[in-house]
Specification:
Blueprint lengths: L1 H5 L8 H9 L8 E4 L7 E4 L6 H10 L3 H22 L4 H16 L3 H22 L1 H5 L3 H11 L7 H22 L9 H16 L12 H19 L4
Antiparallel strand pairs: 1-2
Helix pairs in contact: 2-4, 3-6, 4-5, 4-6, 5-6, 8-9, 8-11, 9-10, 10-11
């Protein structure tokens, strides 16, 4: 409680900034770049993938304020996971992993536990970084990736060709939904408009030509997938402008 009171006015931009503070010196291991994300302010952020994590562990081992630094890192990771889950609800496993680390830490707070927790959090940060780059590897933007993840959540045994077909369906579906939303005003407040959006999703899932889901998908899957994607569209695009 005292820590939260003392830190009340401190604002942490992101995980990377906390890490740079921990590392103490911004050198060639860290690259600063300008980025701008939809719905967020542009500004200076650090490329987490360029951080020297081994050196960071060494720096942390020498710090006398380990608990304070660990709390800063915990809060930054919590904010990062929350932002990532708003974009893609299928990332909940990262939240569960984070909660488990903190739960284990809270059971014992000796020096060895603090250092072990810090290392576990660093490993989590690296995995979060890889997750945020997954869209690039899959050749999908963030929204396409979210729909793709919803479509494959119960079909993890797809081969490369089948996965590519699902990617095509996800991209095509999103394009059709965005086209419909562009024509509707405050659609989330009107039952007929919401029904139109849901029907657009359902029809897109049936697809045409190479935009059809693989044969491993059953007919009853379509209703479940339609509901899942529709809820995501409602949460993502309602009142989003």
């Amino acid at each position: 409680a005292l820590y939260k009171r003392l830190m009340k006015k401190r604002e942490v931009a992101d995980i990377s900034q906390v890490m740079v503070e921990l590392q103490s010196v911004v050198d060639q291991a860290v690259v600063v770049r300008k980025i701008k994300e939809a719905g967020s302010d542009s500004g200076n952020r650090f490329d987490i993938s360029k951080i020297d994590f081994d050196r960071l562990k060494q720096e942390f081992a020498r710090r006398s304020d380990k608990k304070t630094q660990l709390m800063s890192l915990e809060q930054a990771i919590a904010d990062q996971i929350e932002r990532m889950m708003r974009k893609n609800p299928m990332r909940s496993d990262f939240y569960e992993r984070f909660q488990k680390i903190i739960e284990n830490y809270n059971q014992e707070t000796d020096r060895a536990t603090i250092e072990r927790t810090f290392e576990e959090l660093l490993n989590l940060v690296q995995d979060l970084n890889r997750e945020e780059q997954r869209g690039v590897r899959e050749n999908l933007d963030e929204d396409q990736l979210a729909i793709f993840d919803l479509l494959i959540q119960k079909h993890n045994d797809l081969n490369t060709q089948q996965r590519n077909r699902v990617k095509a369906v996800a991209a095509d579906l999103l394009a059709k939904v965005k086209a419909i939303l562009a024509e509707l005003d405050r659609w989330w407040e009107k039952d007929n408009a919401k029904a139109l959006v849901r029907n657009t999703i359902e029809h897109a899932l049936y697809g045409e030509g190479d935009r059809t889901l693989p044969d491993t998908y059953e007919l009853e899957d379509l209703g479940i997938l339609t509901d899942s994607v529709y809820r995501w569209v409602l949460e993502t695009y309602a009142e989003a402008g």
